[in-house]
Amino acid sequence: MNHLDFKEEILSVPIWGFNIPDSSSFNEELLDFVYWLRDTTEGKNRSNFLGWQSHDYIYQEYSNFLKPLIQPLLDISNNIAKDFSERINKEVFIDSMWANINSQYSYNAHHVHSGTLSGVYWVSAPENSGKLVLVNPAGRSETSRIRIKNYGLTPESGSCILFPSWLEHYVEPNKNTQDRISISFNIE
């Protein structure tokens, strides 16, 4: 009879989550802000299909308004970076930040980001508005014969998820008639 001598989990991929304290009133202002951006600026089209994305530098133009999001994000990212990467021995900074509106049936295709850490803050996340799916890198090998499960996260208003920027991910279609609104970012 054959038996295993040991099993060890290796090469795990960390993800981090936190909530912005007292985010409900700030989220109401963010909703108005994101719709204002959509109505007054030209959007971009990268991984999004049927949705809308702002330009990448809203954190520069609107840093005072976005401070309730930016400050906790930088504080937590600095702590993560110290544990996550030995090569980071300086303060982290936001490399890019943009707003997303995913209306009914819109989604984001598989993609990766630049930087060291990436993440998303959900401003408004109605039920069935699409999960953020983190793709298990072990299943991306063409020689892999084992079905590897991906990791789906159900968005919640006021919560934020961070992950390594190289981690492939996508957003499922929004099946709700209400928009899913989020702010995405890259940290360097």
3D architecture notes:
A 6-stranded antiparallel sheet has the order 1-9-6-11-4-3. The N and C termini lie far apart (51 Å). The chain contains 3 helices and 11 strands, in the order E-H-E-E-H-H-E-E-E-E-E-E-E-E. The protein is α+β, with helices and mostly antiparallel strands and 188 residues long.
- Helical/strand content category: alpha+beta
Biggest sheet features? 6 strands, antiparallel
Cα(first) to Cα(last) distance is: 51 Å
Low-confidence stretches: none
Q: Helix count?
A: 3
Note the run of SSEs as H and E.
Answer: EHEEHHEEEEEEEE
* Radius of gyration based on Cα positions: 18 Å
Mean pLDDT: 89
Strand content: 25-35%
**What strand line-up does the widest sheet have?**
1-9-6-11-4-3
Give the helix level as a range of percent: 10-25%
Say how many strands there are: 11
Concise synopsis of the structure shown:
By secondary structure, the chain is of the alpha+beta class. It has three helices and eleven strands.
